[in-house]
Amino acid sequence: MGPESKAKYLSILDQEITAGDKSLGSIEHARNTADSPMTSRYDTMREIYAQEANVKREQLGRVRGFRDFVATAQPQQRIVEGAEFTLELWDEGDRLENVIFSPDSVKVPGIQVITPQSPIGQAIAGLTTGDTFTYQVHTELMAGIVKKVE
Fold first, then answer.
1. Among 6, 47, 56, 88, which one is least packed by beta carbons within 10 Å?
2. Domain residue spans of the chain
């Protein structure tokens, strides 16, 4: 991945981490201040907030790990971990642009990831610009071409 893309993704991830930390703080505050005259309701609300905080912590951990991964990514000539690429999918008539090949899946608005474990990831691993590929989704055989790798 090139330096401009890296800077863009790091900015998006930093914003996501900041928002996630703020959200986690709000959840923990709500858990710590949950108040009810009925003890059972109080305990239930605290438990709900605690579970929500655990989920948010796990999500933030994945985003932080992905940020570290992006920060160390280098420009590539082939689709390997850390590469950013564009694909044209012939059967669907779609174009997947600025996708990151990552060992782990992460859901962050503005960032597309394909992992080597996915059917398309298995098909494109190691390819370079101009290479064609096929992959299977359920019973359908799909095909495409690598348009760009960096």
1. 47
2. 3-72, 84-149
Nearest to 73 by CA among 85, 62, 82: 82
Predicted confidence (pLDDT) per residue in 23-32, tens digit:
888 888 877 7
pTM of the model: 0.80
